[in-house]
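Lab meeting, action items carried over

1. Structure of the four-component assembly. Owner: GW. Status: complete.
Input record:
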Amino acid sequence: MTRKAATVRDVAKLAGVSPKTVSNVVNMQAHVRSSTRARVEAAIAALGYQPNLTARSLRSGRTRTIALALPEVNLDYFAELAEAVISCAERYGFTVVIELTGGHRERELNVLTSPRRLVTDGLIFSALGMSQDDAELLRRPYPLVLLGERIFDGPTDHVTMHNVAAARAGTEYLIKLGYRRIAVIGAHDKEVVGSAGLRLRGYREALDAAAMPFDPSLVGEAGPWHRRDGAAAARQLLASRVPFDAVFCFNDALALGAMRALQEEGVRIPEQVGVLGFDNVDDGQYAVPSLTTVDPGMPQLVESAIRLLIERIDSEEDLPPREVLAPFSICERESTRATR
Amino acid sequence: MTRKAATVRDVAKLAGVSPKTVSNVVNMQAHVRSSTRARVEAAIAALGYQPNLTARSLRSGRTRTIALALPEVNLDYFAELAEAVISCAERYGFTVVIELTGGHRERELNVLTSPRRLVTDGLIFSALGMSQDDAELLRRPYPLVLLGERIFDGPTDHVTMHNVAAARAGTEYLIKLGYRRIAVIGAHDKEVVGSAGLRLRGYREALDAAAMPFDPSLVGEAGPWHRRDGAAAARQLLASRVPFDAVFCFNDALALGAMRALQEEGVRIPEQVGVLGFDNVDDGQYAVPSLTTVDPGMPQLVESAIRLLIERIDSEEDLPPREVLAPFSICERESTRATR
DNA sequence: CTGAAAGCGCTAACAG
DNA sequence: CTGTTAGCGCTTTCAG
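Predicted assembly:
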């Protein structure tokens, strides 16, 4: 494919001015006589001139593009996150590049150090494979905002939510509804930090506060957090014959999968078992029954992340690391008993 | 934020060679003595040198980045499409930039003419707002592959599926199962081309072939194709009191929404009403009941699109427009009666 | 208000 | 095998 693009020089020649003048016209500089401006604009139109962004970036070091690194986009939560980031960034005049990591530490590190970071003004980074030990690797020479629950108190801005408090509130909500044997799906063995670890902590805090015993046989592990994993964990829970009257799933996909598996076995929701999700993904409203869930305040989270990042991009000096916590709430629907 | 990056010259100076030699080392050229190579590599490591991609692009005119323009990413079909494109492109060594259009014609035209096209080697373009009349606007000076059913026989490569045949096959499948009053959800009034128009055509062809009457009161309009629209259309169908024993939804989101609404009204699926979707999105497997659907062969579609695009990127001459049709199949699940 | 010249970081072409 | 030169298209001095 050939791509013969007109340059400033072509325009300048046609308009009978210098390249600089063309540049001034294009960039809305004031110091151009209006007759000159008109001639230049005519030449631009005639040649179909478009400024070459590559060259402009080379010159300015800015691209007006930010990258969003995500584990994947084919999980509702991340799809909604991507959508939100893209449309929020657009409002600030930025284009978003999405880079996928699969949640693998190696690929995450690769995103952090990739030469692509030079053609991007900043990075919003949703880490999953990296862990607290990798915190120092987040010290990078470009604007960076971290999302998620893998690393705290790192050298960069961090936007996340009150996972422990939210999970605790969700569990307390189930307790308030009268559920007494509350199972969990989505735990990660030995994990302390990270969404799974924090949400499990919140769950335990709620049990403790209600003086209810913690029963490890009610804790369902689930590595990835997709529907199929939720379905598998629910089946295992049923097979174990441990009695339970509610399931707190650590995300909505797990919950939707678990609901499917429970219903396959003839379990009635919410009468026999109540189900609580986490994320408030759109699908939850259309499931049968619709899904009660913890809403993690994604709009605020995204808005904060973008604002912090742009502040960093526009700032000359090095800003200290900042942390923002998005607010949460509980979204009551049909998969749990009605409030009494 | 300061960003002091080492350049080829810094490396060259430290290694005691010329910039060109550094370039040779970085780009794996053979003509470098191994001792020199070692010195240069040591210098690169010492300075943490990373090639500046902006400059490289400026020089080569290539960015190894392709853009994927989509209406949105928060609809399972597009999320899965994006995921597939990103991972397929990665296999060919390309990074993907996603640009969202919201399905609005203006924004689609903007994507086509944006100066960003100069920093992208090619574009995979899923049109929704543009129509057949806009075909000529697809004649662009860069590699472009069109996806979707809005424009046919345009001046560019086009990858799509046999919509009419697939919709016909889906409808025939329902007929074979014994359904006789088959409603439709997702029609667009007056649309002839476009997914809605083509799928409606396939539906009518199947009715004709089976000598079954076409009843306009069984056709449910739905502008956007989200769950909520499917739910609304199903409610309207029920409210109209027209008898029907099956619903063919033009995509899975509509079907999932419709199933939700039908079940809210106590309709049993598939005993009283069978439901057929289109897209074979992952969620369909986990719905209750799981969704029978038309599988549009997305992997093949994506692979073809990427291959056509890369061929165009690598080709010196102008290739003629090509059209590829992905194969389809029917995915039988619980939302329709079992085959007799 | 406008022009000329320099240079962002890289690589292709050509010498040595 | 390695160095020198030039230039991608733009913007930013600095002179007119």
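2. GW to write a short summary for the group page. Key points so far: DSSP finds eleven helices and twelve strands in chain A. The longest strand of chain A covers residues 65-70.
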